[in-house]
Amino acid sequence: MVGACVSIHLRHLPHTRIARIPSWTLGRSLVGSPASMNHEPKAGARLEPGDFENVIRLTPLVSIDMVVRSAERRVLVGRRSNEPAKGCFFVPGGRITKNETLAAAFRRISLTELGVEKRIEGARFLGVYEHFYPTNNLERAGFGTHYVVLAYELTSPVQDALLPKEQHGEYAWLTEAELLSRPTVHENTKAYFRRL
Question: What CATH code would you report for 44-195?
Answer without folding.
Answer: 3.90.79.10
